[in-house]
């Protein structure tokens, strides 16, 4: 998609910045307006967030609507709701796995197969393998990841990095050069307050 935006907006860097923001956030363009699902997004607020003036937003909308391939794409965009950010608050974990681009598909299937074989309940899977970004796989699991599965993921062919988003602070001891643990301090605080 970014190559399409590059091709159509190569002479308009400010408009390209707006189009990329719209695409990355799933904001659609219809009838001269910008929408988050069916809610109209105020142009002035959008301009402030993106760091451009309102005129650039209006010119971008106009350009998208008069360029048929862009219009087809942008009128169908929608944001994808995800559990990734709230999972640690709920007591779940998120595996954020970076894979080699050339081994992405094999790594994707190996991780899911490994989780299945070890009885790890998967709640959500989200993946990105865009050309100019690292190939990433996000998996929300119900509960916490067993240590042995954590170690097997790190040994997979094509594995580059694992970030484990967890409510458990003690998982930091599992970190190696390729991994990182981000625990949820809010979840730990909630648990402490509940035990009082």
Provide an overview of this structure.
The chain is elongated, with a radius of gyration of 20 Å. The chain is of the alpha+beta class and 196 residues long. The strands form two sheets. The protein has a five-stranded mixed sheet with strand order 5-6-4-7-8, with helices on one face. A three-stranded antiparallel sheet has the order 1-2-3, covered by helices on one side. The protein has helices at residues 2-9, 13-24, 43-50, 54-66, 68-74, 104-117, 147-154, 185-195; strands at 28-30, 33-36, 39-40, 93-99, 122-128, 135-141, 159-166, 179-183. A hairpin with a 2-residue loop joins strand 1 (28-30) and strand 2 (33-36). It has two domains: 2-74, no CATH class; 87-195, ACT domain (Alpha-Beta Plaits). Helix 2 (13-24) packs across helix 4.
List keywords for this structure.
196 residues, alpha+beta, Alpha-Beta Plaits, 2 domains, five-stranded mixed beta sheet, three-stranded antiparallel beta sheet, 8 helices, elongated
